[in-house]
Structures are given as C-alpha cells and as structure tokens.
UniProtKB/TrEMBL annotation:
Descriptive protein name: Uncharacterized membrane protein YraQ (UPF0718 family)
Membrane-spanning residues: 43-65, 86-109, 115-140, 147-169, 212-230, 242-259, 271-295, 307-326
Record's keyword terms, sorted: Cell membrane, Membrane, Transmembrane, Transmembrane helix
Signal peptide, first to last residue: none
Pfam family, one: ArsP_1
Amino acid sequence: MFIFTWLNEQVLKMTWLSEAVHKLVEEVFGLDVQSRIGSSLHFYIYDVIKIFILLSVLIFSISYIQSFFPPERTRKILGNFKGITANILGALLGTITPFCSCSSIPLFIGFTSAGLPIGVTFSFLISSPLVDLASVLLLASIFNWRIAIAYVVVGLILAVLGGSLISWLKLEKYVESFVYSNKVLDMPQETLTVKDRLAFSKEQVLDIIKKVWLYILIGVGIGAAIHNWIPETWITAILGQDKWYSVLLATVVGIPMYADIFGTLPIAEALVSKGVGIGTALAFMMAVTALSLPSMILLKKVVKKELLIIFAGIVTLGILIIGYAFNAFGHIFL
C-alpha cells in the first residue's frame, strides 16, 4: 500500500514537481503562491509540465504496443468475432488508439471498407477519442483512481451499446458508397526491429504533441482562470450540483468546441474545485471530445445525415445519462 501511495503521489500526481514549481514562483518570480497571480502561475506551470511529461511517456509506451498491431492485422483479428464480442473488442481497441475524434475517422473508413461490421467501427469511433489509456492515467493524476476507472467503464459501455444499437438498426445503407469501394491493401506486415518500433513511438509522440499542444496550453489557461479568478458563487449559480440543467448545459456548451481530452482535463479539474458536480465536468469533457462540431462535419463526409443524427443522438443521450449518474453518486468516487 505504501508503494502504491508513493507511486500515485510522486509519479502520477508529481508532488515533487508541484513543490519545485512552488519554489520557482516564490523564489524566482517573487510571488506568494497564496495570491491570485502566484496561485494561477503555479497552477499553469505545474499542470502544463505534468501533462506534457505524462502524455509523452504514455503515448510512447502505447505506440510501442501499437506497432505490433497495424490496421490490417487488427482488422483480421476483429473479423474473427461477431456480435457484441466484436463490439467490445472494437471499443477496447479504441482505448489504445490515442487519437482525437477527427484522427479516428480515417481508421473508421479503413475498417468499414475492409468489411468490418458498421456497429464495430462505430464502437471504435466512440471509444477512441473518449477513452484511452493516457487519459485514464491523467484522470487519476488529477482526481483519483476511482473516478478514472469509473470513467473508463462507463465510456466503454457507451461505446459498446452505441455500436451494438447501430448494428441492430442495420444502418449500413447510410454509409457513403465510396467508403465501401475504398481499396484496402492486404500486404504482409513487415518485420520491425526494436529500433524501428522505438522510432515509430518517437514519431507518434511528436505527431500527437504537435496536434494537442495548443489545446493543452489554452485548456490549462482556462482552468487557471476558473480556479483563481472566477468567483465560486458565479460557477455554482450556473453549473452547481443543485441545478437540474447543469449536465445538459455543459454538454451543449461542449459540442461546438474542438479540443483533445488532454486540453479539457484542466478545465474539468478547475470546475470540480469550484463546486461543480463531477458528472457535469465529465459531461463537458466528453461532449468536447466525442461530439465536437469539426468531427461531426468530417463524419458527415462519410455517412449520410440519417446515420449522423442517430450517432450524435446516441452519444448525447449516453453522455447525459453518465453525467447525471456521476452527479448523483459522485460522492462515492471523490
């Protein structure tokens, strides 16, 4: 238990980094960390460095594992399963693909054109931006393991049920015809050396960092502002746990935005610290990552409006249920 606590505090929460930034703010910048400016600066520097360190290490590790499972090999594995088992595997596959919703859509096209059931590809499409191993550990570092694990479980359930429902409704006819006619090369996987896999992992880290760094900086900045400058009474008056519409409002506000889950986590952290229900904060985070307007526009290019509306409706309903459930039982996890 002592070792687990130490790892949680020093590796995930990085208390050593918090203490180092504390000294930096006070001794170098000459600011009191109890003041608004000092506290904001501490929040910003600490969260930015922590997120980038965790993100780099996790993406590198996950990418190394991914190098053993290229898309064609993954398609063959998934093709051996049917029904809800295939949906579960599709959702689990999404957890080891650290992509935003827009980046997941090319893989969705590849899987669909390769002959995988549409429900399985939608299970992947839901879980990939919503639940991945990196976000799980970041959630644990910001909140705790109970919330992180609960978030993963409900995210996977949403992905499996959503994909299964789309499969049951037999909506294949609402996928654009060019997706099915898109050719997929069935070539033997080239044997990669350890050096090749390490190089691939490094490239993945750099590629993802390039895509998300701005969202992280903006997200942490918003989080610092909420945490130190916006009065708690203002936040709770709009998104307080006693407001029945808080989850609905957070979901609606999140949809037009576009950010990676790593950029929304600091905002969720700040909202919860101001008295917002954990379910409301998670609903906002899930809406931004799974239902962002840019990803819906991109998805519209490959599916017809009927399927797009059904997909968005399923995910929105799932997010609302999850948000209200976490608000009702959030005390168990905090």
